[in-house]
Specification:
This protein is mainly alpha-helical. It is built from 17 helices and six strands.
């Protein structure tokens, strides 16, 4: 019996491999190495001759594997992987609901259909149902009632089984596809409502031909199937605009698909952001929280006084910048002049006349200011006082009052803000008080606070920031700190013994530069913040001016005292010289 040669030609090996692979998975082993090349023209059969007749590969395989039929000879094929369409943007233009989309490379066999649906459904009808449902999942028309006409012949239980099989084996994001379909429908409806001609309606129309009895009869015969054909489920296609004179290319289609994916992802992220914002607004921050926290409602008592303290103005009064600033500017000038006069004319009381004689004057003054700030902070917790506090203890740019500049330097809404300011006031205020006295200390405090808020008010009015308000003792405190370091601008400071000896520490000018840098950085960065930087700058300027004024006055007083001592010493020495006897008379 003829047999295959040990080393057959490559063409014979490929032909035998294709034939064996097509026969129920039975393989023909051979020692020749396989050769998979690109697509070639149909291969000619390579014959092997015996003593009687020529024998081809099909004859040999038929003798060896006679129990299975041999498939017809086919040209060489390339190996490719089937990928089902799963995204709405990849939907073919010729898609129709009665035809559907392929869900796998080969249709299901009857044995597989029986395992899914049972023995009552033929394989061809089962595959048709699966293609229709898969197409609807991709086209976003799974719940479209108009298209149910195409699947009325199938049982509801079979459709549920088909969907269960498709969802388990062909993953499709049905929600996103349905959303993209809805967007296209809205776009088409809007265009049709406004009379725009941006869509090409896809309608198959046959060209008319000369009518004849035979052609008319054929047309009448074919009319029934066309009319019986169900809805296609297609939308009018938008006219695609392409700059290329050759029309739309594959790159244009890929770009359109990527844009559709990106828009769908942006839509999903936007929905998640809105949902997250709603949950945060309701207080439902964590996923483990079962009950949403509702915002605490105000009691009728609190609501009553809030309404009284709220202005009835719907917009800021129409005023020029000068009209808005002139009263406050006049008060600032009067306060600064009054502070200068108070610093010059103040004389400390006797010990017996003091309110707290056992406490040092510096501590008593700072404790008094800290107590006033604490009292005003507590008043903000009393609703009946809100109307008074809103009128005189907070700077309102829309409706400024001159006394707000003085009252706001003792006002704080938050305890942390007040505690930080009072801590710095105690640390630097007691030291500055010991050097300049109570008159100079209080003059710097009030002048720095008033000038600071005037600077802030001017800045906001010129920038038309009428929705802002300001309060706090920061401007006055920065004036105290700046005055202290200016009086010691050439002195060296060490923090907790650092830097160690013999190294010298930074001078007072370095700390003033650090304070200015901390306030200039937010202005350069242009980042949003809630710090009233102009108020701090105004306080720093007032503290520097007050310290310089007091330094020159103290220097003048020291020189005058030295002159008086020198004159007194001269007057004492002259009588002594007159009383002494002349040396010649002895």
């Amino acid at each position: 019996m003829p047999a295959l040669p040990v080393f057959p030609p490559p063409s014979s090996f490929r032909l035998g491999l294709r034939t064996v692979v097509g026969n129920a998975g039975k393989f023909l082993s051979c020692s020749a190495p396989p050769s998979f090349a690109a697509r070639r023209p149909p291969l000619k059969l390579c014959f092997q001759y015996s003593a009687k007749v020529p024998i081809g590969p099909s004859t040999i395989l038929k003798k060896h594997y006679s129990q299975t039929p041999t498939p017809p000879q086919t040209p060489g094929r390339t190996f490719s992987r089937f990928r089902a369409i799963t995204h709405y943007s990849h939907l073919p233009e010729d898609y129709e609901d009665p035809t559907g989309l392929p869900f796998r490379k080969e249709d299901l066999r009857q044995r597989e259909v029986n395992a899914i649906f049972g023995a009552h459904l033929p394989a061809d009808r089962a595959n048709k149902l699966l293609r229709i449902l898969h197409g609807r999942r991709v086209a976003g028309t799974l719940d479209d009632p108009v298209l149910q006409l195409n699947t009325d012949s199938f049982k509801k239980s079979d459709m549920e089984k088909a969907l269960r099989y498709l969802r388990a084996n062909v993953p499709v994001d049905e929600v996103i596809n349905a959303g993209l379909r809805a967007e296209d429908e809205l776009q088409y409806l809007d265009a049709r409502e406004h009379g725009e001609e941006g869509f090409d309606i896809v309608i198959r129309v046959e060209k008319p031909t000369p009518s004849s009895p035979s052609s008319q009869k054929a047309k009448d015969v074919n009319a029934a199937p066309q009319s019986a054909k169900g809805p296609t489920g297609r939308l009018p296609l938008p006219r695609r605009k392409s700059d290329s004179p050759y029309g739309e290319s594959s790159f244009d289609r890929i770009r359109a698909a990527n844009i559709a994916k990106r828009e769908a992802e942006e839509m999903r992220l936007e929905e998640e952001r809105k949902k997250r914002e709603e949950e945060e607004a309701k207080g439902n921050i964590g996923t483990l929280q079962t009950q949403q926290q509702k915002p605490r409602e105000m009691s009728p008592f609190v609501k009553k006084y809030m309404e009284r303290a709220t202005s009835e103005l719907t917009e800021p009064p129409r005023m020029t910048a000068w009209e808005r600033l002139l009263p406050s500017f006049a008060l600032t000038v009067l306060v600064c002049l009054g502070c200068a006069a108070f610093a010059v004319t103040y004389k400390p009381p006797k010990r017996s006349s003091r309110l707290w004689p056992d406490i040092p004057p510096a501590a008593a003054t700072c404790l008094g200011l800290m107590g006033l700030n604490l009292v005003v902070w507590m008043c903000w917790r009393v609703p009946p006082l809100w109307a008074l506090l809103n009128r005189y203890f907070i700077v309102v740019v829309a409706t400024p009052r001159p006394l707000q500049l003085v009252g706001a330097m003792f006002s704080h809404h938050k305890l942390g803000h007040a505690a930080l300011n009072m801590m710095v006031l105690w640390f630097f205020g007691t030291r500055l008080h010991d050097e300049v006295g109570r008159g100079g200390f209080l003059a710097i405090y009030f002048a720095s606070g008033t000038l600071g808020f005037m600077t802030s008010l001017t800045s906001l009015v010129l920038r038309r920031g009428f929705e802002y308000t300001s309060l706090g003792a920061s401007g006055a405190v920065y004036g105290i700190v700046t005055a202290f370091f200016w009086l010691h601008r050439f002195d060296e400071f060490k923090l907790f013994g650092y830097p160690p000896d013999p190294m010298s520490g930074p001078q007072g000018l370095a700390f003033i530069g650090l304070i200015l840098g901390m306030h200039l950085l937010p202005l350069i960065a242009r980042r949003p913040h809630s710090i009233d930087i102009p108020s701090h700058f105004g306080g720093i300027a007032a503290g520097w001016a007050g310290a310089e004024f007091l330094r020159r006055r103290m220097d003048a007083k020291a020189r005058a005292r030295a002159e008086r001592l020198k004159i007194a010493d001269t007057q004492v020495r002259e009588p002594e010289q007159d009383a002494a006897p002349p040396a010649a008379n002895r």
